[in-house]
């Protein structure tokens, strides 16, 4: 009888040890999973930041190119108007003068 009780106590202790080891293993796995989750989140944020920086740089490049194009068009149009003014200035002055005098 004493041996049976001793065996039951040993089996109970072994069961408790297995439960403790299983809980410890579960806690270790959960902790590792949380660390992995944090690392994945960090990597995704870093990747998103890199993509955003690339997008900003690309849009800035496009905007600068468009501004340069507009500036070129502005200079061309200004030169065209200056040339037209230089070519027709005297004629326009006479037309305005005649329009005022003859009205």
Question: Your description of this structure?
Answer:
It is built from one helix and no strands. The chain has one helix spanning 2-101. It is rod-shaped, with a radius of gyration of 43 Å. The N and C termini lie far apart (138 Å). The mean pLDDT is 95.
List the helices and strands and how they pair.
Elements: H1 2-101
Brief characterization of the structure:
With 103 residues, the chain is mainly α. It is built from one helix and no strands. 97% of the residues lie in helices and 0% in strands.
- What ranges have pLDDT less than 50 throughout 5 or more consecutive residues? none
Summed up, the helix count is 1
Q: What is the SS-derived class?
A: mainly alpha
Shape: rod-shaped
Number of DSSP-assigned strands: 0
Keywords:
103 residues; mainly alpha; 97% helix
